[in-house]
């Protein structure tokens, strides 16, 4: 596992700052900084920076290969996040499902889509050895 002295950083495009802030704050992410051309969030302990670049929006996003998200080590946290996303009426790209059912790598997952069509996956593996 990683040490707590490291924070993963991801930069993604956004098409409009206000709707981006609204989406990520509804998801529970803390707005850390805002400039005229980007916003930075605490995304579940890591850093996500949304750069204003409407010309770089994927108009037909697909789950694979481009998405990012959280792999929960605790099923209750996965369930709480799913419940929270539903209660906040966040847009689902893919409703909750089970992947690789019956196999060691079986996991529960769902995808959200942000206002710039970036896909966010949230998942939980029943077998912790499958996380990496």
Set out the fold topology:
Blueprint: E1 9-14, H1 17-26, E2 30-34, E3 38-43, E4 46-52, E5 68-72, H2 75-87, E6 92-99, E7 107-113, E8 119-125
Architecture overview:
InterPro entries: Glyas_Bleomycin-R_OHBP_Dase, Glyas_Fos-R_dOase_dom, VOC_core. This protein has one domain (9-130): 2,3-Dihydroxybiphenyl 1,2-Dioxygenase, domain 1. It has two helices and eight strands. The protein has helices at residues 17-26, 75-87; strands spanning 9-14, 30-34, 38-43, 46-52, 68-72, 92-99, 107-113, 119-125. The strands form two sheets. It has a four-stranded mixed beta sheet with strand order 1-4-3-2, covered by helices on one side. A four-stranded mixed beta sheet has the order 5-8-7-6, with helices on one face. Strand 3 and strand 4 (46-52) form a beta hairpin. The N and C termini lie close together (10 Å). The relative contact order is 0.20.
Quick structural gist:
The chain is α/β, with parallel strands linked by helices.
Which properties best describe this structure?
39% strand, 2,3-Dihydroxybiphenyl 1,2-Dioxygenase, domain 1, four-stranded mixed β-sheet, 8 strands, 132 residues, single chain, alpha/beta
Strand line-up in the sheet with most strands: 1-4-3-2
Largest sheet: 4 strands, mixed
CATH topology group: 2,3-Dihydroxybiphenyl 1,2-Dioxygenase, domain 1
Q: Please tally the helical runs, counting DSSP H or I stretches of 4 or more residues.
A: 2
Strand content: 35-45%
Give the N-to-C terminal Cα separation: 10 Å
Say how many strands there are: 8
Global outline? globular
The helix-strand sequence is EHEEEEHEEE
Oligomer designation: single chain
Q: Percentage of helical residues?
A: 10-25%
What CATH architecture label applies? Roll
Mean pLDDT: 95
Radius of gyration: 15 Å
Uncertain residue ranges: none
Query: CATH H level: which superfamily?
Result: 2,3-Dihydroxybiphenyl 1,2-Dioxygenase, domain 1
Protein name: VOC domain-containing protein
InterPro entries: Glyas_Bleomycin-R_OHBP_Dase, Glyas_Fos-R_dOase_dom, VOC_core
